[in-house]
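Components:
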Amino acid sequence: MDGNAPDFAAASRAALADPQLRGNFRRAMDGLMTKRAAQFADQDEWHGVRALAASVRLRALSKLPELLEKLEENCTRNGITVHWAATTDDANAIALDILHKANAKLVVKGKSMVTEEMHLNAVLEKDGIEVLESDLGEYIVQLDGTMPSHIIMPAIHLNTKQIAHLFKRKIKDAESREDAAYLTDLARRVLRAKFQAADVGMSGVNAAVAETGTLCLIENEGNGRMCTTVPPVHIAFMGLEKVVEKLEDVPPVISLLPRSATGQPITTYVNMISGPRKEGEKDGPREVHLVILDNGRSTIYADPELRDTLRCIRCGACMNHCPVYTQVGGHAYEAPYPGPIGKILVPQIEGLAKRGAMPHACTMCNACVEICPVKIPIVEIMGRLRVEAVKPGGTVKDGGAKANRTESMVWSGWAAMNASPTAYRIATVAMSRLGNVAPSSLPMLKEWTNVRTKPRFAGRTLHDLARAKGIPDV
Amino acid sequence: MSDARNSILTTLRRTRDAHPLTSPASDFAPIEAKQWAADERLPRIRRLMEAVHTEFLDATEADWPAVLREFLVREGVGSLMYAPATAAGKRLVEGWDAASTTLIPYDRPLEDLKPQLFESIEAGLTTTRGAIAETGSLILWPTADEPRTLSLVPHIHVAILRTDALYDTFLQAMREQGWAQAMPTNVLLVSGPSKTADIEQTLAYGVHGPKRLIVLVVHP
Ligand code: SF4
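Structure:
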């Protein structure tokens, strides 16, 4: 493990030892999977709309540079100021610059995964700016001083009792009541005062339409609308892959996103913003800024296979269906994006030296691939990244970082053994004779036998038994 | 930062051209196939929206202000903000005789109304540009006369829905109303009152937006 690399194995062991946490995740994921399945009961409809949504995302990627230029042109015409950021540092600097010009002291934020990627809150706080997450889940996580554990439901790792205690500790005059309705109302009161007073509102973007210069945001709570409507300045952040070509491309994406994410037919609000307040209009921000972030995405785009990572619409369904995520929860990944999409996206953004373990946190069961609304071959990409981690020279950041001489010698030996019938025979006979007397503490066996019983080796090989039955070797 | 712009676009162009990508044609038929008979749309919208706690009132062109007045009185709603320059707003104030509900016009910029809007106004009235049968969604089209916060900040949002603008899908609505030709500052689909399930998957209504959504259906 590198000095600063998160230790997924250790974090998972800790998570697995926490029955409360595992119970919280198991219950939530089971509920989400059932609700999603009910939304796609009509399989023909699912296949049809899914193929359409995948084509929308692919078409956008096939014209990505042209569409980004068009988006910029149309946003600018609509009065939206467009900023480009190569790195998260650049994006944070752009945000600070806008905030300083607006003389901002208080920022309210709607849910935005890109700003998690930027660690924007920490940057703003260091600058003395108060920043408040307003999505209820994000608000809870912020009060708790932790990270979101799911991209759609950030506080899914906590139960009502834990949240009630947190509110009691952190909010003035809070009563100690384990009641979701009461706790929700409490957050409403706190945050409404902040929406009213905020100097700047921030949000993510679910889809940006090149054709019309429109930013689409979906949500249930109304906090996204508050952040993009009430404060005098709105800053929206998007990864550069979030663009779609036409306005008509929005309905297929909106049709699949909430159904996949939470099993609801549509979110309460679909908010489409095409500019700041116009002359004569009585509300809406006077300035709208769009920050387009690269942060490694253009490198992902360079590889024709890995490029599919950028189709993602961030529905989170792959997390809900992942046996590893469900067992260890979101925090074990110590990354802004956990679960299957995280395991392919984060190593590509942050590099394989730091994140080389992530693509291995997968059983290759393919559940995520089956439910991904835009048909991302997540497992294939995971396989590619495992290879890239040990093979220098590819396009992935820190490719080859995990290359290791002993391991490559073992694998060459393995290949040689499988290529020679004699060597293969000697090896299998040796295994059947010596396998059972080999202690489970042998270095090569330990990783496996740590958490499993050592298998019993059969006295005779399958080839032997087959030959005895008169089946010839091929 | 225009350096970032150029270098990002140049990289994208170069790598895309090295490995061009052909996308399959987008076949919208699976969405276009979603259709409901004219008389099924409203019941479907109602069923889907009621499932997420939306309330419905039935009225006609002749009596909708009276139906609304009765509702506000019955529920003890003391103040209703409205858009005075719209046809609906003008209709509303004609002979308003409910002493228990004060009508307050949205006639100034938000900055001059914030405390009132956030702290004392109980309900807001807006029109809609129709509704969508597939998902049970209202189309809101805020204008200079009918601001965005009218449907967002007050605890109760009353939306007038005329039954001559009911669409099968979001796609059909945007095509038939020609949205792509002229998007306004803000368009919204609203499918219920504000809600959350962020506390242990328990559904709770009225987090940040309106706690109650009342659809005032105006039948011909
Ligand atoms: S990879 Fe697919 S399933 Fe996972 S978040 Fe992205 S779109 Fe959803």
